[in-house]
Each structure stands twice: as structure tokens, then as C-alpha cells.
Amino acid sequence: MPAAKSYVTPLDYEKMTPEEREWAVLTGRADLDRAMKEGTPRSTTPPASPPAQPSADYAVVGKPQKDLEGYRIVTGKSTFTVDVYLPDMLYVRVLRSPLPHAKITSIDTSKAAALPGVYGIITYKDIPAQVLAGLKPVMASEPALVGDPIAAVAAVDETVAEDALNLINVQYQQLPFIVDPIAGAKSGAPLALSNLQSNVSGPDFKVVRGDVNQGFASADVTVEHTVNTQDQQHVALEPHIAVARWDNDVLTMWTSSQYTHAIARIVAATLGMPYSKVRVISAFTGGGFGDKTAVYPYHLVAALLAKKTMRPVRYELTRLDVFYEGSHHFQVVQDIKLGFKKDGTLVALQADSTARLGAYSRGSGLAGDTLSGARLEYNIPNILLNGRGVITNTSSAGARRSVGEASGMFALETLMDVAAEKLGMDPVDLRLKNINETGDPESKLPWTSNGLRDCITNGASAFNWKSRWQGWANVNKGAGPLKTGVGFMALASNKGSKSPPMTAVVEINVDGSVRVVQGAAHIGGPQRTTFAIIAAETLGANLDQLSVSEPDTAFTTDTGIVAGSRATKSVGSAVKAAAEDARAQLLGYAAAKFSKDLSRTVNPQDLAVTNGQISLQTDSSVKPITFADAVNSGFIIVDGQQVPAAATIIGRAVVPPVTQYAQQTYAAAFYEVQVNVQTGVVRVTDAMQIHDVGKVINPLQLTNQVHGGSVQGTGFALTEDYIYDTATGIPVSSNLDDYKMLMINDVPKITALFVESNDAVGPFGAKGIGEPAFMAAAAAISNAIYYAAGIRLTSLPMNPKRVLEALKA
Amino acid sequence: MKTILHLRVNGQDHEVYVAVHKTLLEVLREDLNLTGTKHGCELGECGTCTVLVDGEPVLSCLALPIELQGREITTVEGLADGATPHPLQTAFAELGAAQCGYCTPGVLMASKTLLDHNPHPSRDEIKHALAGNLCRCTGYAKIYEAVELASKT
Amino acid sequence: MRSFKYYTATSWEDAVATLGKYKNAQIVAGGSDVLGWIKDELTGPGAPLADVLIDIRTIPNTSYINYDATAGLKLGALTTLTTVAESSDVQKNYPGLATAAVSPASPSIRNVGTIGGNIMQRPRCWYLRGANFPCYKKGGDFCFSVTGENQYHAILQGELCYIVHPSDTAPALISLNATANVMGPNGAKQIPFDQFFIGPRTNVLKETVLEHNEILTEIVVPPPAANTKSVFMKVTQRGVYDFALVSIAVAAQIVNGVWQDGRVVLGGVAPTPYRATDAEAALKGKKIDANVALQAAQDTLVKARPMSQNAYKVDIAKNIIVQAVTSLVS
After folding, report:
1. pLDDT tens across B90-117, in order?
2. Which chains have 3 or more CB–CB distances shorter than 8 Å to chain C?
3. pTM, rounded to two decimals
4. Which CATH number fits domain C228-327: 3.30.390.50, 3.40.50.10860, 3.30.230.10, 1.10.260.40?
5. Who's near B72: CB < 8 A, 6+ residues apart?
């Protein structure tokens, strides 16, 4: 194959805001850009496969392990941020804009301030211009979405604070607003903010590979469609919350977070303080799904009101506040077109993606993320991808369990199904024919591993696809009102990568116990248990020797974010490296002790560690020693007393980024649905997801992640919809009755299977799972609906309205 | 408008002086320091704040404690027998049926009523009993399994 | 939650008198709807927020189920939905009502939610429930659903305001020819549920004929006539308890497969529970089969005036009428 012309428009990191840079990291784009910028050798020959990690029988890794924090949780003793009540604390309530776009012409808080029990009020007049939460105003003077914060009150209790809000008099000058991204991108559209030149944010995301026109000219079969995926909210059950307290010039903030260090760093920078003087604590986090990665206005509201009143301040958002201020899985409109040879070989892909950014997200990165899987999942010589973000007067776009990829994979994998029918091929075979098993064509880096083929073939066999899917002649062949059908999708995702920051500390104490010091959120993974498993395996320790620290920036280094499905791989890599460092030191002490006790030289490499015992491999007659024996082996005499020379072993790790490989996760999904053609109601009746996880660290919790991902992904497909009234710009489905999430009644049998492709850089070969489990649903469900009832649904959610309308069309 | 309330929670009598409009959830958490019961949506739509009143599940975010004087209120803190966890707690912890764990107290309380009335429920009965409890992490499969495991112990 | 004053009523008369004293008073029983309303601060020019709550749970003897074959069924208004649903008398004699009492919500809501409250609950329209929409029902001068997001709104009898009535038990009670016992300043009175609910044209600020100081105290259902069959069905988007896209209650005397007399009542389609008299007329005297049922459905839905986004509800309503009617003879 001739070398294809290939480039990706590089992102200008100098000109990006901190928030945009966070996005680039989150989406994996930064890895790609760095790989290209650092001049990774480009080759026209396929990249070499990575060397396989040594596969081994592990003592702890791969065995089902319950959450070490489980009993704290079930007894109600786990301390979520909502459980933090401090002496002398004040409660905050926030007045929010009723208009999607306006200028405040006057604001009078005097009556509210006079209300007994009110101790502090802030409005935009109290906030310096440079104090922003990302790009969001802490208090808006030009509110750009319904729910933008206008005034915050700290009072003795929430009722007094709410009563005070009703005494604040605000006059608004209404401004034109825009909700729909397609309309907003047109010239002459009302500007979402008065300081914008255009609602289209920054240069388009663009990828060109080969010649797409020639590609389509050479195609025998072309398919295309337009896909519209909806705005959604994560609805992490613990509402967003910040509790702030100042002790002299040190700010302590408890917050429900996926990334305490980023909160500390950004709050410090925003307030012009040293990072070291902002302490952020998040012992347990009650769900996040991407919504608790950033600094929001509420963090700064709590900090500023605590400073103003010099009392601890607590701001727990109401559910409506969360819908307004929280981030949103953004609406995306995608046009996508594929070209094939008669035998099913993909020759061309063209896709265009328009993402609704809301008022305070920027750039084309989010739209670009929707196109990531399409760029990388299959071998396609000719590609043209375009993506843009459009600023609108809606809640801000953000990461929700995959950022944009879930929408992109829905567009691609439903179109692959359309193509399979047109080609007369089994959809499974069409995918198998086109998998890109070599590497990233743009960066020329090989995959760390790619288990997609096994995911598909193992799944097809386990699901009994060949007998349950009976060819294209049997679409919509069921009799009666309840029609059953099966559907399939394959998935490639840039999530689950290993990327910095990756630091950790592993301490071996004088008594032989081990402390894993890390700052990653405990959010249901269960992350602390995962890190304990990795450390125990690396050290040869028993799990009950270990404790794992809670996220607290005062005591932990920045171990990285629990988002992007990367806790296991990134933080896990750091923990593993720190444990290796500690192990090397431990063996040094142990070797010295053996040498002394045996009066002959024993080298560290002669030792083995299992079950917390250090033994001499070369001589089984020598009694093994414990970690404590080793740590305590060196003594000095002080005042006639023996004192341990090294009371603690401290293993550290700062893990460099991965530059020699491109990283992906893979999955296949098989779903069965039942479509009631009289009511339009779709129920999933059987679900199977097969994931390439590299290596299973903890099968018990891994299965849980797939179950949860499947249910959320099914909600994305069928019910969840954050709807704006376009005439007023006000969201209407902003409560949990109207924002419909699936509950226990809606859950079918879900089977989780795993492929171990032994990732080249993950700890013990592992990669991530959280987001792939969410993504591996919607397209399979849509494809199954087609097979059952003969309707192609390309807008989400696929609710009774859409089903019945399609049946009538 | 404030009043003195006499509440019996987890077998203990409490006297609190609170505003009449405070919900049971707020009084439990803010006045009695029983923070195991969580706030999820404040509108009765997620089940996170479920507690038991005379053994039956009730949403504490929509309950006025003034109405519940003299009734037996049970929260997750009252589920264990001293240091011995309730079989449901054991099952949820052992099976990983609690992930982030925020919904877990509410799910446990609704499950307790189910098992008290019906020691060996079918999946369908579990489904109906827990239909008001939103869980965003687990996908519910492990919750079914945990209730079943607890019913066998 | 905003603050309010709280009174406990000792008798229906006491509750009525207290309501009369406070313009913005509101009675509370289970509280599931009332407290949500206050927390959402749903207020407007014609709908002030309640600043006084009158608890009627303190009135003695308000929760009961009495059944006998001649007097029929008497339900205290404060009987919980759980109690109604689990009553063997209700299950045996009024299966449609038993199903309708289970279907509104999860056990934790049903355990406190009362049958009276289910009948009196306010509509779920997201414009009405959104604090920022000064709609007709809050005393404003616009219905936002007309030009807005109306996929869940009324397909029948909408005018001015296009809410749908949210109650599941109300259609069941109308189908069973039940009557409301009401206490007011002039004493007790009876109102058939068929005449209990009012549409927006009559008074857009409320959904029933009750005045501010009148309270629903008891529900009376006549004993089922011989050969009566009843059914309640509901279409929801999720498998979980949810408000109805469309619900239906049918009660009819059927002899040898022939519809003698009966009622068909739809929920979720109109601002009040919708008595489908056209369907009833089409069914009367007919041997029930799918074609007859379809005719009844078509006669009903020919009057539908769907809005921009809710025509699919016409299809659901049509199909569910057929399903419910034919289920009585299957």
C-alpha cells in the first residue's frame, strides 16, 4: 500500500485555557500530539508489535477481591463530603439566572443582608475579574445560561439562606440567546456571549488521511446518515458539594471530587495562592462519571464566602443546581459516510461533527473526540474528519463516561450495520474484515495491545450470534405486537490510557505493614482496593498488611485523575512503580540481614517474596523472614539503646508518559431487545459485553463496572434526555422524574466477558473499563431495534415517541 | 416556627428543638448526627434517603418528623446488631453490591423491610421492593445477588 | 425548603375552619406532592406558595377500608396506596382499582402516599413544575407547551393549558362510578368522581371542583354489578414506576362476551381523567372482539388534537383501548 498523505491539525497548547488543556489530556489527544511533536520516527511500514509483558501466575491479581472499604460503606460510616459538618458552620444557597442570556442592570442585596441569620452575600461585584472557575464566572454579570449563579448567601441554615435569596432584587436586560448548535453555527446567529466574535469556537478539528474523494470514487457501496445524540447529565447520586474553611492563610476544602489535586491546583491559581496552601480532601466520592473533575463556581463560592465570613461554609447543591451548574454529556450532530468495496473492505470515511458546548466550554476538542473511534477502529485509507464546537446558552459540555466517543461510536457502529445489510454481509464478519490491528495511522505508533478480534469472535460464540441473528432476510419478521431482535457493535476507544501525572509512594513500616500513599478518588471502582491489589502483588505482601490512603492533597502527591477510565492503568502504574522501588529497598535490607545471619553474601536477586515472607531461593533450609525482620535489620546504638536505622522504607515513583505506543481499549457488544410496536416501548432483554481489559486485576469489581456501564449506556440509548425549551432557553427535564434513568425494573441479564490482551504498558498488562462499558450499548441496541422492527433510529433517546414515529414513517 | 420533637431513632429516644419545616432527613443528619442517610434529589425521586418508620420504608426527604413522633424510626446506623453487621450488610460488602456506596444505605433499608416480611423473596419481589432506589454505579445485578445471599443467611 | 407554619387538625371541621382562616394554607397528608411543590418554590401571580400546612393525619379515623356487598367500598381519604393495593376486598371486587393503587410509585412513596393525595395531586407538566415558567396554571397568561416541548402533553380536551392528569387511581375510580365525600364550611357533600375534575376552561388554577376550604374525606365505590370486570393498564417509558404516557381503566358488565354497560376512562391524555364516552357508546350491546374494540378506540381518538410532538400518544391510546377492552373477554 502506498504511503498515505496524513496529518492531524495540531492543537496550540500555548493558546489553550487550562480547561482546554485538561480536555486534551482527558481525551487522549495530548498523548497523540506529543507523540507527533516529539518526532516519533515515522515509518511507512506498519509499526512493530510491542513486546508482550511476561505473563505469570499471580498471587493476588486476577482473584476476586471485595472492596476493602465495603464494610465502612454498608454501615453508613464512609465519610462522603456531604457528611462533613463543621462547628460554627454556615450554609450557602445560590440565586440563579432565570434567563438564558442577559445583562444584570442592577442588583440590590440590602434587604437580604439585613435578614437575621445572614452572614455574607457575594455577587459579581465582589469577585475580581480574573477569578473564574475554568471559564465560568463565579458570579455572573452577564448570565449566559439558565442557572448561572447571580448571588450567593451564607446563613445559619439553608432556610434562612433561601429566604434571603427571595429578598434579592435583580433587574435584567434580556439578550438574544441560542440553544441549537446547528443554528448557532450559522452566520448572523445571536451570540451566546457578548464578547464572542462567533459562536463557533476556535479552528475546526480536522483529520485528513489519503484522498477521501478518490476513496469514495473507488467504492462499490456507499452508506451515510445523520445522527443526533442528546444532552445528558451524569446524576452522580452525591450532589456536588464544597465545604470550605480558612485557618489563617490556609484554605481547606472538602469536596466530592474525582481529582483533588486539580481542584487544589486550580483553586490556588485562581485565588492567587500557593498550591501548597490549599488542601483538598475527598475521602469518598458518591459517583462522578466525569462530572467531578473540574473546578466549578461552587468551589469558589464556598472559598470566598468562608473568607468573607471567616466561618466554615458548606454549599451542597440541590439536584436542580447540579443540573444547571454540573457538566453535560453534550448534544452532537454528526453526518457520517462510509465507502466499501464489494467484499466489505472499507475504503473511505467522511464525518462531520458539531458539538454543543454550552456557555463555557471551548474549542473543537469535544467534537474531535466523537470522531476518535472512527479514525482508529478500522483500517481506512481515505479519511476526512471535521469537527467543531458551538457555544450556546446552555449548561456547559463536559466529560460524561467517554466525553464524545459514545456519540461517535453510536454514529459509526449503526452505520456499519446499515452497510452490512447493503453488502449482504453478517455484521460480525464486516467488522472482523476491517479491524485496525497495527496502530495509530497518524502518529505511526503501534497499539499497546489490541484484543478486538477476540472480543468479537468470543462474544459471537458466547451469545450464539449465528443462530440468534438469522440473516438480513429476517428483519422485522416477528408476529404480534412484541418484536424481538438482536444487534451487535464493536468498539474502539481512546479512553483507559496510561498518562501523567503518575506518582505514588509506598511505605513499608517498621512492623512490616505497608501504606500505599496515593490521592486518587474512591468512587466505586473500587480504586483503593485496586491499588492495594497492585501493591500487594508487586511487593509479595498479603492484602491485610496494606492500607491505602484517602485523597487528601496535604498528604499525597498528585497521583492523577480518576477519569478517562485511567485509574487502574495510570495510578495503578504509579503504585506499581513505587511498590517496585520499595521492594528493591526491602530486598536490600533483607539481603543484608541474611548475609549477616548466615555469615555469607546473599544478594537481593537471590530472594523471593511471597505472602509477606522473604525467602532465600537458593537454600530452602533457611527460615524465611518477615518484612518487619528486614526493615528492622539495621540498628544503631543511641544512649545505649538499639534504635532502628531505617524505621521506614519509602518507595517512590514518578512514572514518565508513554511515548512509544498508542493506547486503546476495545469491546464488542451483543444486545437483544423487545420492541412493543403498539406502545413504542423498547426493553433490553439480554445484554452481553466483551471487553479487552488487558489483564483482569479484580474480576468481582470488573464485572460490576460492566453491569453499571451497560445500564447507563442503555439509559443513554433509550430514556435519558436533558431537554431545553427552545423558545425560552430553559431546561425542562431537570428533575429525576422527567430526566428518566433506568432502575432495577429495567435491568435484563447482563453478561460480562473479558479478553486479556496483555497491554504493553499497563500494570500487569491491565487497561481501563469504566467508559468502554458505557459506550458498548447504544449502537447495539439501535441495531437490534432495526432487526426486530425494521426501523433505523439515529436520534437518541430511542423512546416511544421516536419508535412510533419511525414505525409510521 | 420551632418546636420540640420527641423522636425514637434506632431504639433511642431523642428530644430536639427544630423548625417545623425541617424534613426528617435534615433532622437526622443535622440535629442527630446520623449522616448515614443521604440526600440525593430532595424530591422523592431517587430513594437515597430511605429510612424505616415502624419497619416500612419511607423517604425521609419528604417526611416531616413532627408527624413521626412516637413512631420507631430506623436508619442504616441501626441496622447492625452492635458490632455484628446485619446479613444484608455482610452480603452487600462481600459481593461488591455497594460501589460508590452513596445509594447503599437507602437500598439496605428497603431490602430490610422486604426480608422482614418475606425471608426468601423471588427476583420479582426484590425488583418491586427496590423499584424506588436509584443506583448509578452497579447496574443492580449485584444488588439482586446480595439480597438473595442475605436471604439465605 | 422555605419555612412555613404547621398546624395539626383535630377533625375535618377543624381542618376546614383553619383552611378558611389562611388564604395560602394547604392541607398535607402523605406530603409526597405538597412538600415537593414547596421545595420547588412553584409560585406565580395566581398561585402563592403555601405558608401554612395543615396536617390532616392527626384527624382520627381517616384511614380505613370498609367493604360490604350492599354498601360497596368505603375508603378513608388517608388510607395509603399500599393499604388499598393490598386489601383483599379491593383486589377481589375491584381489581382495576387494586392495580391502579400499586402503579403510581415505589413502596416507599406508596407507604405514605394516600388515596386522597393521589386523586388531589397536582399535574406533572414540566412547565408547571418549572419555577421559571409563569404559566396559566400559576396565574400567568401563557401555556409554554403550545410552542414548546409538548411530547407528554394533552391530546384530548386541551385548551388554554395542556396538562395531563397524573393520577392512576382517578381513572379507575371514575370507571367504577365512585363518589367523593367532601367536607366544607357547609358540612359534608357527595360529588361523583365523574364530575369531580374540571378542565382549564372552567378554572385553570385548579383541577377539581373543590374550593380552597373543602377537603376530600372519603371515597365510596358502589358494589360491583353482577358480571362486572375491571382492568387498569398503563404505558410508561421505563419499567420502573413512572407517570403514565397513557393509562386506561375499564369497568364493564359483560355477559357471554357482550358489553352490557361500562366505562372507559383514560389517564395521561387530557387535563382531567378522560371518560371515553364515544368508546362506551361504540361498545354498548356489542360482542367484544378486536374489531369492535378498534372501532371504539377510533371513535374516541377521532377527537384527538395532538400537538407538534405528541401524535404518538394517539397511537398508544388507540392501542391500549383495544388491549384493555379485549382483555375483559380473554
Report:
1. 999 999 999 999 999 999 999 999 999 9
2. A, B
3. 0.95
4. 3.30.390.50
5. B8, B11, B52, B53, B54, B55
